[in-house]
């Protein structure tokens, strides 16, 4: 990468740390450190919520998905606006009005300490591991592209984030998120403009070519529990997933607990409701346009440069043969695309040429898998390859900085929420309830540093821990919907503590049974199954047994 | 600590400003989905 691009990246990293620390006003007590004294404006909270959701995987993985699979992934977000509206009138007033630090703290007031500790522990385990995965995804891509060891990429992303999150608390996290969101959206818009300028065909022709391959097929109305992205799984499963994520995950709940009032907290969530689908559609459309771009500009046979280097040295002759066939197939496809765009031939000729290119590439991917012994899936490398090789000077630096911004905003929010749950739900609740605010503040900073280092270690060893991370993520999806079920149960007046606790265990067990017994069922439905099971079991058990619940509600 | 009332009326007690925002959100969603539908209808065979 050109030195000017590196200057942009390093300048961004220095700026985000210095400004994050500068913004850390009012963080002398834990209320300020974790909740910014509940005094942040709705627009800053709203941008922070959006930045937290937008991870580095969105920047590099979702664009790659747009290039290979098209726009249909956007259906995943169809339930989000509805979920935001539901949360705005249900959980947000509950949690904001209860003046709690964590979502799980509210559950103790309703169902006792056992349910609170279990849900908070589930959050710590799953988020602690996923935070490592969030750092490792871009770190592995950077390592492959720039030839760095993984620890160096992890350090570059992880350490600045830990520093500003630890020193500045939620104020630093939120204000850094605001700037990171502008950088991310600015970089995306700049890429669209550059793409439209560089394409040798008009935007209308580009879309006609992409449409012929099915990449502009947004809606799939088929009724299938096994198809991951359909209109119905997006609307129903997506609503439950968004309700779980935004309503019960501390990394999200903590964002809107910092808002000045219930109305401002609601408005901050509605910002995501406004912009999430258009933003995701834009990101996927960029991927689609990159696909069209590579119809006229020869793409590499393997997008992952590390794999390409390995295959070239391990199986040079075989690779050279495939490469020459690939070149010929690309030439034929480019000609067919031009002919189709000009209306000289039917789409079938272009589609046949495109299939020929895909077939040759599939052979190269098999070769890469044999040579490296790892998965040759290279969707995450399509966008970085385009950015580093085809964007004008400076744009690559902005894009790399934007990918780092996306990673850092997500990691910072998670570290801050992990520290909050550790200190409030465990340390203050069980170990030192009477300690001073200054003591809790020092412990909170220590907890942030601990979780930051834990996430960096998980990220560095992600290759070795690969299956473990997968297991944790998989089990994480077992309890997402179930935790939502507990919160829904909390809003049912007759629900009691034993119903909530055993309902939660029943919900997780049911999702585990469905996931293991019928793995073909899309994970989006797991949230629905978990939440419904918890509510059903919880209501039935509450009717059968007596326990704290209604009394806690009435007594406050 | 007193917890907020959980009755349906209390849950729906958003200010007029919030209700207007809600209407705008739903309008934006419908327009977005219509635009995506038009994109698909125009360019997908």
Q: Which two chains touch over the largest interface?
A: A-B, 41 and 29 residues
- Helix and strand succession of chain B? HH
- Radius of gyration from the alpha-carbon trace of chain A, in angstroms: 25 Å
Radius of gyration of chain B: 18 Å
| Tally of DSSP helical segments of chain A | 23
Q: Characterize the largest beta sheet of chain B: strand count, sense, and whether it forms a barrel.
A: none
Task: Give your account of this protein's structure.
In chain A, 79% of the residues lie in helices and 0% in strands. Chain A has 556 residues and is mainly alpha-helical. Chain A is globular, with a radius of gyration of 25 Å. Residues 549-556 of chain A have low confidence and may be disordered. In chain B, 71% of the residues lie in helices and 0% in strands. The relative contact order of chain B is 0.08. Chain B is rod-shaped and about 45 Å long. Chain B is built from two helices and no strands. Chain B starts with 7 loop residues before the first helix and ends with a helix. Chain B is an all-alpha fold. The interface between A and B is medium-sized, with 41 and 29 residues.
What topology emerges from the helices and strands here?
The complex is a heterodimer of chains A (556) and B (45).
Chain A: H1 3-22, H2 30-35, H3 42-53, H4 56-69, H5 80-89, H6 91-97, H7 103-111, H8 113-146, H9 150-198, H10 203-212, H11 231-248, H12 250-257, H13 262-296, H14 305-314, H15 316-341, H16 347-372, H17 382-390, H18 395-431, H19 437-460, H20 462-490, H21 497-517, H22 524-544, H23 550-555
Helix pairs in contact in A: 1-9, 1-18, 3-9, 3-12, 3-13, 3-18, 4-13, 4-18, 5-11, 5-13, 7-8, 8-9, 8-18, 8-19, 8-20, 9-13, 9-18, 9-19, 10-13, 11-12, 11-20, 11-22, 12-18, 14-15, 14-16, 15-16, 18-19, 20-21, 20-22, 21-22
Chain B: H1 8-11, H2 16-43
